[in-house]
């Protein structure tokens, strides 16, 4: 194994947990990261929070209603296209069950998972709960269940993690950087990869020879 293969790679991943493009990017990135880790590469991922709609209702609403308002007659075609794209990545999306909701509490859970070294597992569980299972990822009880699934101990149960003010500050910091859409992935000091790139593009970005 080369010295380069042993060097730690730092990744910054800006996402929202109700963003389908973030889910696609995360899935492809994780496959690429698994391949590099299998080669002995150490990859440290830090998630940064973004909200595509900070004013989304905390109680949630059917995603189909939001789609109708945003896309009108094009909503059905968009859903079919995204469902097909996700299926090619091994994901089963059920937009008809999804609950569009404010993601602040979900980002708080993800930040707590980050503090406990379980962020990637928590991100996967939150995405799957939202897009495949129709779970309300803004509901505190639901989030406690998802935390347990991901091996995360909530702060309310004695776990280590940030408070709401810290997450709010992180959201503000991302906005002040000028970020207006997600996902964004940056490997070490390389260029930002915006949008859901291919697995091979993430693999190349994680190359030990970068």
Q: Strand fraction band?
A: 5-15%
Low-pLDDT sequence parts: 1-5
Computed Rg? 17 Å
Structural class: alpha+beta
User: Strand arrangement, largest sheet?
Assistant: 2-1-5-6
- Per DSSP, the total helix count is 9
Helix content: 40-55%
The outline comes out as globular
Major pleated sheet: 4 strands, mixed
Number of beta-strand segments? 6
What does it look like?
By secondary structure, this protein is an alpha+beta fold. The chain is 48% helix and 13% strand. The strands form 2 sheets. The protein has a 4-stranded mixed β-sheet, with helices on both faces. The longest helix is centred in the N-terminal third of the chain and has 19 residues, at 20-38. The radius of gyration is 17 Å and the shape is globular.
Write a brief caption for the model:
The chain is α+β, with helices and mostly antiparallel strands. It has helices spanning 3-6, 20-38, 63-71, 75-88, 104-115, 119-131, 140-149, 164-176, 199-205, and strands at residues 8-15, 42-49, 61-62, 99-100, 184-187, 192-194. It has nine helices and six strands; from the N terminus they run αβαββααβααααββα.
